[in-house]
Amino acid sequence: EYGPNLFSFPGQPNEGYDFESSLPTELDGTLYYVLGDESAAAYDDYDGDGYYEWGGTLNEFEGYKGYWFKSNSEIDIDFSFDISDGTVARYAPETEKLEGFDYNISSSRAFYFVKSVPEASIGDWIVAMHEGTVVGARKWTGEVIDVPAMGYDGESYSLGYLEAGDVPELMVYKYMTGELVPMHGSIPAFADNEVFMVETLSDESPVMPLEISLNGAYPNPFNPVTSIEFTVPEMMSVEVSVLDLQGRLVDKIAEGMYEMGTHQVTLNGNSLSSGIYFVRLDAGGYSKYTKVMLLK
Q1: pTM, whole model, 2 decimals?
Q2: Nearest Cα to 6, choosing from 81, 83, 65, 84?
């Protein structure tokens, strides 16, 4: 059904099964990401040429492990995994770790698919941090990678990890020098069990905005959480509201003073019905709108 669905892969424990070969054909065209504990796969047009393919480091399913599947289908689909002998790969390998940048695997997590990092060399690492705490890391391969970002799930081992609305700090660890270089880019706010696309990370400071703008929502459609991005050219009072199709206020998701720059706030639709809504940004005497769709 639409949204995230948790499945247990029915293979032998500790055996790896080729990811694409194991996917049932019934899910073609409807499945757009799969999340494991430490790796993910997303179906996307990575090169912008209209050709969609799977990317990320989730190359194998492991028997008896659980995976989150996210579908854009609004109807239930019956399927079974292909676990024939031809799909068995090998003993499932452990995920490579960056020494000195340890983090715990949380049941609350997201993955940031980074497409381009001009300042990174193959063998460097992209490290995700939150207020000085490491929440994920992935080795740069020169191609799109899935950087894990662990969230706080209520357990003590995840204290200080990301919560809904937090924006992770992404950095490049230079393996030749040990230098940790802060990166900048359009980085969406954290939401549990989500996949986000980051086009480019750069060590150049972002250009300051010249005008008030409402930059849309991601993901959209969403269920139940989406991230709203806006920019302001100077410190000013900001309100971000959610309206129904009749223009009635149904939620206010941000109110207060915001500094110059780009900001993100989270819309949680748990208490809302499925349908179309408008997000309104009020700042500096101007109002900006964007349309979002909640599908439950």
Answers
A1: 0.72
A2: 65
